[in-house]
Specification:
The complex is a heterodimer.
Chain A lengths: L13 H15 L6 E6 L18 E6 L5 E3 L2 E3 L1 H12 L8 E2 L2 E2 L22 E6 L5 H27 L3 H10 L4 H13 L4 E3 L7
Parallel strand pairs in A: 2-7, 7-8
Antiparallel strand pairs in A: 2-3, 3-4, 5-6
Helix pairs in contact in A: 2-3, 3-5, 4-5
Chain B lengths: L18 H15 L16 E2 L3 E2 L6 E8 L9 E5 L2 E3 L4 H10 L10 E6 L5 H13 L4 E5 L1 E2 L6
Parallel strand pairs in B: 1-8, 3-6, 6-7
Antiparallel strand pairs in B: 3-4, 4-5
The chains are: A alpha/beta, B alpha/beta.
Chain lengths: 208, 155
């Protein structure tokens, strides 16, 4: 039996084939992570639900009309001023906080606002109500939401810096990496509870 | 000066034997990370709004996406259109869409499910609000308004 030597396969073009596939996947791949402004919708109220009476001074009214113009607390405002106005409202601390388990949370001792009696009592009572028109541009709506959230972020960062010497953003990042850390969880929750995000979206007005 | 005299020495060829290995490594990396879009867009690719305060959506399998924008096909008309899965729908179909998404998961996981609305900057708040009301009706309360993360917003 004559043993025939198997001829070697020419692998010279393998690199070309691999390149071709590589380029295909390079082009089709998308590495974007989906990110967005997260919102929690309120539950559907029962039919005979009577909304609680809320003091006028604890509501911060933001209106956006269909020409994408802002009306804040009855006065026109440009978007650039919205964050500071919101911050001032939330951080006012003019009175006692809401009742938790029958006990009042007391005055806001970490607020640095004016403590005016014409503005909000406590960050946990301060409600921001956004009312837009059906014709408002979605981009404007997002911009407004973003400004409101920026005010909260700034306040939370300030409080975290004062109490724990790190910003809230860093704190949250650290907690995300180490979810089992009870101490971090407590800190994050404390800050979140001190400045809870209460943004309510009123049903949009319609043109007719 | 003879030191600097020209020495004729042929350039050694670069060894390319490991090139296929390197290319294959890259290839596998991209093959693994690639996510093919499972639905093709019936609406024009939405131009997402910019925002600074965004949160990343984790756990992609829990995210159901609703697209809002103008229809590519002119027969649907010009206004804002809602795309669920791979067809143009109305706000009334949102409930069925959520039920369908839920049926693929166990009941314990329903609480983690998030709806991501990818809407064009120029769509109107009314359309988004219609979707929100429908989502509230079926108790799908976690919502993410998809936006692109930027460091600062130009006013």
């Amino acid at each position: 039996m004559a043993r025939r030597e198997t001829p070697e396969i020419n692998a010279g073009s393998m690199a070309d084939i691999a390149f071709l596939l590589l380029i295909f996947f390079l082009v089709t791949t998308t590495m974007d992570v989906d990110s967005g402004i997260s919102k929690k919708l309120s539950e559907k109220p029962p039919k005979d639900y009577v909304p609680p009476v809320i003091k006028e001074r604890n509501i911060f009214e933001v209106n956006i009309n269909r020409n994408n113009e802002l009306l804040v607390e009855g006065e026109t405002m440009v978007l650039a001023d919205l964050k500071d106005a919101t911050l001032k409202f939330i951080d006012n601390g003019g009175g006692e906080g809401k009742m938790v388990d029958g006990v009042s949370t007391g005055n806001c001792d970490y607020c640095k606002g004016d403590r005016s009696i014409a503005s909000s009592d406590h960050p946990n009572k301060a409600i921001i109500s956004v009312q837009s028109d059906r014709g408002t541009e979605y981009g404007m709506y997002i911009k407004v939401q973003n400004e409101l959230l920026r005010a909260y972020t700034e306040l939370r960062n300030r409080l975290a810096l004062d109490t724990y010497n790190t910003s809230f953003t860093e704190l949250e990042k650290a907690y995300k990496k180490d979810l089992k850390n009870e101490k971090l969880k407590e800190k994050v929750n404390f800050i979140k509870l001190s400045y809870p995000q209460i943004i309510s979206d009123a049903e949009p007005t319609s043109a007719n | 000066m003879s030191k600097f005299g020209k020495k004729k020495k042929p350039m050694p060829a670069v060894n390319t034997a490991s090139l296929p290995d390197i290319v294959f490594m890259l290839l596998f990396f991209f093959m693994v990370t690639t996510v093919m879009r499972e639905t093709d867009l019936k609406i024009e690719n939405p131009k997402l709004p910019n925002a600074t305060e965004v949160k990343k959506l984790e756990k992609k399998s829990y995210v159901s996406t609703i697209y809002v924008g103008k229809a590519k096909d002119k027969k649907f008309g010009t206004g804002d259109k809602i795309q669920l899965n791979d067809k143009i729908a109305t706000a009334d179909d949102v409930a069925a869409f959520i039920y369908n998404e839920r049926s693929q998961k166990s009941e314990a996981e329903w609480g983690y499910m998030t709806t991501s609305i990818k809407a064009d900057v120029q769509s109107s708040v009314g359309t988004i609000s219609d979707i929100k009301l429908k989502l509230r009706d079926v108790n799908a309360l976690k919502l993410s308004l998809s936006s692109r993360k930027v460091e600062e917003i130009k006013q």
